[in-house]
Amino acid sequence: MSADIKDSFEQAMCLLLVNNPLCFNMVISIDTQRDDSVGTMGVKVWDGRITLKYNLKFLDALDKAERNFVLIHEIFHVFMHHCTWRQSSNRRKRYLDNVAMDLEINSLITENNFIQMPRYKEDTGIRKKGDPAGLLPSMFKYKANLSYEQYRALLTKDFPEDEIAFIVGEGDVLDGSPDGSGKGKFRIDPDCPLGKIVSGRIDDMHGSEYNEDPYADDFIRAKVEQIERNHLWGNAPASLVEKIKKAQEEPIDWSGKLCLSLGDFLSYEKVYTRRRWDKHFGKPFLGNTMKSVEPVAVYTDTSGSVGSADLSRFIVEIESLAHYTQVMLFHFDTEIKNPEEPQLFSREAIESIEFKGRGGTSFKPIFKHAKEHEYTQIVVLTDGEAEAISTEEIGEASVIWVVTKGGSLTGKPGTVIEMTR
Predict the structure, then answer these.
(1) Residue 183: C-alpha distances to residues 172, 180, 383 (Å)
(2) 295 cis-preceded (ω within 30 degrees of 0)
(3) Is residue 219 helix, strand or coil?
(4) How many whole angstroms separate alpha carbon 105 and alpha carbon 97?
């Protein structure tokens, strides 16, 4: 290995100290690791640790100003908590998420003589020498400086999931495969609408090592507080400072509230289970779990008023309950869509859930159905926009209402929890 390649990351760090002290203060607070299996540079989050991985040969091929840009780009993902959000198990949705994140981040970076987005060094397919190697809102005819959520909404509208095609290598699998792993090496098909724009401008495995992690989130918030307290923003524009500070606002943990409320549905008695191995000794010793009091009936409002994003987030949260007790999943709008065919909830079943109803909403069929089948532990996901339900109609059931953000919280006897993001 040449001395130049060996020193390229250190050179980049020295330049970062001068040109962007804000990002330098974050980089020196996290782990950095050479990893030649990484195509370019990326962030890994695992078990409360944030690691910046980099390929030295990639860095060596960049100009000094381009190295600055790439480092700043990755650290802005950290500042904005992109790398600690729950990732969709659906490859196409995750790809849209990653594109939206890059559009937000690249809008935040001000280019100058010392910070420049990498350019193609030679003609590559439809990309010409000198073209930017990263994603910019102008490529989609979008405004600059929008939020990730705004870019995600625009992309979802302009590029429906069924239009996003991947070229899959031999032996690789994609979403919908029998084992549901979704693992493998993929290349977005340049013939699909999104591919014509993003091919070559986003790493195939971008975001693959992001991981929802509350400890890492807390670390990032603490670091931003330290930067604010010690006036370490450097030459960052006021608009950027405001966005980073805004990203640190911690939402109410609605899922944590849900878990606490579900405690009434469980007992403290533990039983052995084959669903997990002993956490101390591993295989072949069985682990244990809390004994369930009785099955829980989960009713999801699949009327047009509840969005698919709300449904998918709710499903993931309910998954944790399925570790402890039997969960029966039903779908409803003005009626129960699968009254005699409940979805037995499990990790393997999540991706196969099909939401069938799209109409108005009524809560009355839920409690009529629950009484007929003797379900007394009930969770309802809804936007709350329906007629009020009375205590008499609920009867002896214990009910938890999970209401989507901005939904109606009134007229629902039992525990009411509002989703906050």
Answers:
(1) 7, 8, 34
(2) no
(3) helix
(4) 12
The distance of Cα 279 from the centroid of its chain, to the nearest Å, equals 27
| Residue whose tokens read 């992109």 | 82
According to the model, what pLDDT value does residue 387 have? 87
Q: What is the largest CA-CA distance in the chain?
A: 78
CB 420 within 8 A of CB 403: no
DSSP conformation letters of 289-336:
EEEESS-EEEEEE-STTS-HHHHHHHHHHHHHHTTTS-EEEEEESSSB
Q: Which one-letter amino acid corresponds to residue 421?
A: R
> Contact at 8 Å (CB) between 317 and 300?
no
Strand partners of residue 34: 54
What confidence category does residue 3 fall into, taking pLDDT thresholds of 50, 70 and 90?
very low
Query: Can you give the residue ranges of every domain in the chain?
Result: 3-149+207-247, 254-418
Strand ranges (E), 173-234: 186-188
pLDDT at 236 over 80: yes
pTM: 0.63
254-418 CATH:
3.40.50.410
Phi, psi (deg, nearest 5) at residue 221: -60, -40
> Do you know the residue count of the chain?
421
Structure tokens at 140: 């989609």
Q: Which two tokens stand for residue 373?
A: 């089948």
Nearest to 355 by CA among 372, 373, 379, 338: 338
